[in-house]
């Protein structure tokens, strides 16, 4: 029997443990394997409800709108009011976005169908769309099916990858039909909080040297919103560490050097870190990563990334420095999708790098050129894209994030298993075709009436048939590569062409490809083939800021390029030199001149944290009162 003099102490210790447990549980439920339903923000259901089409009306001054469109490559924000599914948000920032797609549209006088970035708190501090700080609406460029990006994110999400939310949007401008778009959650604070909680880590959007150089304005703002990490508490003391961040039919095997569109622009040999190779310990050696930081960052943050890259490239302590399982899942999906406008090509972009506690993972972004829309050569090379050398225009060793993992037998087996899971759960059971049919029933009417469509409705229907056929043949090839009946590397496929899946019935241009738009003279086939494009880029790439000489122009014409194509390629180069699409360097007007501080996260995040603090506070006060009562209460003896 416990003596009375020990009861008070035991009760006090029990209550103290309860207080500590409650505090830890409320702030970090993930430590107990619990994800609260309330962790999904309001915008997940109110905006990105995939069962519905987003209704979006942009109300904007006509003069401002037309000026922005006329100077789209400047990517300057203007103010507008946006009504989303009946709710209006005032003084919202909007601007054109994109790289080559932006240049293509800007140089086409028949369309102004740009993609746009929408930032809800650009002019009004703390404003959000049901907790969402920023979104993009993508113009579905180079995609006759309207589904490439949607299906790509759907597959990423089904494989457990932290994926941005996405949904179709019917967009109007000042009440007039503008176009049918795909809305996508931006990878910024609200995304990070939704996926990783309030103690989320650092996020970067690596770009190659010639890509992504001027589109960094809102990142400059947002990087002053520092997430909680091990350095946050010492932000002021570490002031000296603060960095000033200013940065398409025949049968033939796949050829990794084929189709180097954008090679000069991608600047494969330029280094800079976006290939995730370890260079040295100098932060300045990795401008293509650290100059594209999404959040406020410091030298100590960069050092953690560099240390992880060194261990990755050395192949040491991989599971400590790389989220191996997540990365294998990502590349399994990316390989199945034949998504080459990404890390795996000479472009080495269109991905996000997430770092938490020194461990790296990779997040998906920009999939309008998936399903072999970029550098895929022909239908055979796309359908039979090798799963064990899943790169384009480069050697596998040039992409250490996948190469180093595939060197480990256990990891390669797991990668193969994830690819098999994708086949079993998404293709072989009919889900892929069922999803296409379901989406078609949902969006068909919108596509048919799309006011600014790049493709005709007939091309859309033709594209859907081609997409289904591509998925079927791609799955057959992968199945054969997994069981050994079809070669799974580039070299093996080159030596065993007779074993490849026959894809002569597919025309990749039916799916839409880079440079492809609707109508006469706007098909992908109207663009020069990849070898011609590469030669043309060699000529244009030799020119710095000066104009092309008559001799150079004649050389380009001798290659078969028209004056319009020459001008388009020049403008693409200039746009890529100036910048890509990771906002920065713009400043809000005077009413928003003050940069955000650590406490200035989205309103959604603040509300959730405040709610937790109230619960904890009330619980703590109640427990303290109980503790005082127990410690001071004198029990009366009961006489027998």
Automatic annotation (TrEMBL):
Bias (Basic and acidic residues): 209-224, 575-597
Biased composition (Low complexity): 249-264
Region named Disordered: 209-278, 483-530, 571-599
Record-linked Pfam families: CotH
Keywords for this protein: Capsid protein, Membrane, Transmembrane, Transmembrane helix, Virion
Bias type Polar residues, positions: 225-239
Transmembrane residue ranges: 7-27, 613-633
Protein name: Spore coat protein CotH
């Amino acid at each position: 029997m416990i003596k009375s003099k020990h009861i008070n102490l035991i009760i006090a210790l029990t209550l103290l443990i309860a207080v500590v447990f409650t505090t830890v549980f409320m702030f970090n439920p993930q430590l107990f394997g619990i994800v609260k339903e309330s962790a999904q923000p309001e915008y997940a259901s109110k905006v990105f409800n995939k069962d519905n089409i987003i209704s979006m009306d942009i109300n904007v001054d006509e003069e401002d709108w037309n000026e922005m469109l006329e100077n789209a490559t400047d990517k300057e924000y203007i103010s507008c009011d946006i009504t989303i599914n009946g709710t209006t948000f005032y003084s919202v920032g909007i601007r054109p976005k994109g790289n080559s797609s932006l240049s293509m549209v800007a140089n086409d006088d028949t369309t102004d169908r740009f993609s746009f970035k929408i930032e809800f708190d650009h002019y009004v501090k703390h404003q959000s769309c049901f907790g969402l700080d920023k979104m993009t609406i993508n113009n579905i460029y180079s995609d006759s099916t309207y589904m490439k990006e949607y299906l790509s994110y759907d597959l990423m999400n089904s494989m457990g990858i932290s994926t941005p939310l996405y949904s179709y949007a019917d967009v109007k401008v000042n009440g007039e039909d503008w176009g049918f778009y795909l809305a996508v959650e931006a990878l910024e604070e609200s995304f990070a909080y939704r996926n990783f909680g309030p103690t989320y880590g650092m996020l970067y959007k690596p770009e190659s040297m010639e890509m992504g150089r001027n589109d960094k304005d809102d990142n400059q703002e947002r990087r002053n919103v520092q997430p909680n990490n091990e350095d946050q508490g010492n932000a002021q003391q570490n002031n000296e560490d603060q960095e000033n961040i200013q940065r398409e039919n025949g049968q033939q095997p796949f050829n990794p050097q084929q189709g180097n569109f954008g090679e000069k622009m991608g600047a494969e040999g330029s280094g800079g870190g976006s290939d995730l190779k370890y260079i040295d310990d100098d932060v300045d050696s990795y401008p293509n990563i650290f100059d594209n930081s999404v959040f406020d960052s410091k030298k100590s943050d960069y050092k953690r990334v560099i240390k992880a890259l060194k261990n990755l490239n050395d192949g040491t302590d991989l599971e400590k420095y790389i989220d191996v399982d997540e990365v294998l899942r990502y590349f399994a999906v990316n390989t199945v999708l034949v998504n080459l406008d990404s890390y795996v090509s000479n472009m080495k972009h269109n991905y996000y790098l997430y770092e938490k506690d020194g461990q790296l993972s990779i997040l998906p972004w920009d999939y309008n050129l998936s399903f072999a829309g970029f550098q895929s050569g022909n239908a055979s090379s796309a359908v039979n894209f090798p799963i064990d050398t899943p790169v384009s225009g480069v050697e596998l060793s040039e992409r250490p994030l996948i190469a180093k993992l595939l060197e480990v037998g256990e990891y390669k087996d797991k990668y193969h298993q994830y690819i098999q899971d994708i086949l079993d759960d998404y293709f072989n059971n009919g889900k892929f075709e069922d999803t296409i049919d379901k989406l078609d029933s949902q969006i068909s009417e919108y596509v048919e009436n799309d006011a600014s469509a790049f493709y005709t409705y007939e091309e859309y229907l033709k594209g859907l048939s081609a997409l289904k056929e591509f998925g079927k043949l791609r799955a057959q090839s992968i199945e054969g590569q997994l069981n050994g009946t079809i070669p799974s590397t580039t070299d093996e496929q080159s030596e065993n062409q007779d074993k490849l899946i026959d894809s002569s019935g597919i025309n990749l241009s039916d799916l839409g490809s880079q440079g492809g738009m609707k109508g006469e003279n706007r098909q992908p086939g109207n663009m020069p083939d990849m070898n011609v494009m590469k030669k043309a880029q060699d000529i244009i790439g030799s020119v710095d800021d000066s104009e092309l000489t008559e001799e150079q122009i004649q050389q380009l014409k001798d290659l078969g390029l028209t004056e319009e194509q020459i001008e388009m390629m020049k403008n693409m180069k200039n746009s890529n030199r100036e910048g890509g699409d990771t906002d920065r360097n713009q400043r809000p007007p005077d009413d928003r001149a003050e940069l955000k501080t650590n406490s200035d996260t989205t309103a959604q995040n603040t509300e959730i944290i405040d709610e937790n603090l109230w619960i904890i506070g009330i619980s703590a006060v109640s427990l303290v009162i109980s503790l005082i009562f127990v410690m001071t209460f004198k029990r009366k003896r009961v006489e027998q």
